[in-house]
C-alpha cells in the first residue's frame, strides 16, 4: 500500500534515525504501527468491558436496584460540607 508522508512526518522519522534510536525509517514505522496496534487492542478491551458494565447496570436498573440520584447527590454534598467543616 503506497503512502506518502508529510514533511513534518518525514522530519520526525529522520530525527529518530539520526539519534540512533532506530536503524532506519522502516524500523521506526514498524515500531509506531506495533504501538498503534497495542493501543487499539487496549481500546477494544476497554470498550468491551465498558459495554459489559453498562449492560450489568441496565439490568440492575430494570430490576429496580438503582440508586436515587437526588439522594446520592444530597449525601455527597453533606459529606463535602462535613469534610470542609472538619478541615477549618
List the helices and strands and how they pair.
Blueprint (H helix, E strand, L loop, with lengths): L6 H12 L6 H38 L6 H19 L1
Can you tag this structure with a few keywords?
0% strand, elongated, single chain, 3 helices, mainly alpha, 88 residues
Structure commentary:
0% of the residues are buried. The protein has one domain (7-87). It is elongated, with a radius of gyration of 25 Å. By secondary structure, the protein is an all-alpha fold. It contains 3 helices and no strands. The mean pLDDT is 94.
Q: What is the rounded distance between the termini?
A: 65 Å
Major sheet, described briefly?
none
Structural class designation: mainly alpha
Output the number of helix runs: 3
Strand content: under 5%
Low-confidence spans? none
Give the overall shape: elongated
Helix and strand succession?
Answer: HHH
Our count of domains comes out at 1
- Please count the beta strands (DSSP E, at least 2 residues each): 0
Rounded radius of gyration (Å): 25 Å
Provide the residue-averaged pLDDT.
94
* Proportion of helical residues: over 70%
Amino acid at each position: 500500500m503506497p503512502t506518502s508522508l508529510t514533511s513534518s512526518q518525514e522530519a520526525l522519522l529522520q530525527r529518530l534515525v539520526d539519534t540512533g534510536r532506530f536503524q532506519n525509517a522502516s524500523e521506526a514505522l514498524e515500531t509506531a504501527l506495533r504501538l498503534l496496534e497495542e493501543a487499539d487492542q487496549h481500546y477494544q478491551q476497554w470498550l468491551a468491558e465498558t459495554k459489559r458494565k453498562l449492560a450489568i447496570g441496565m439490568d440492575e436498573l430494570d430490576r429496580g436496584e438503582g440508586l436515587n440520584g437526588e439522594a446520592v447527590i444530597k449525601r455527597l454534598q453533606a459529606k463535602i460540607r462535613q469534610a470542609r467543616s472538619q478541615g477549618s
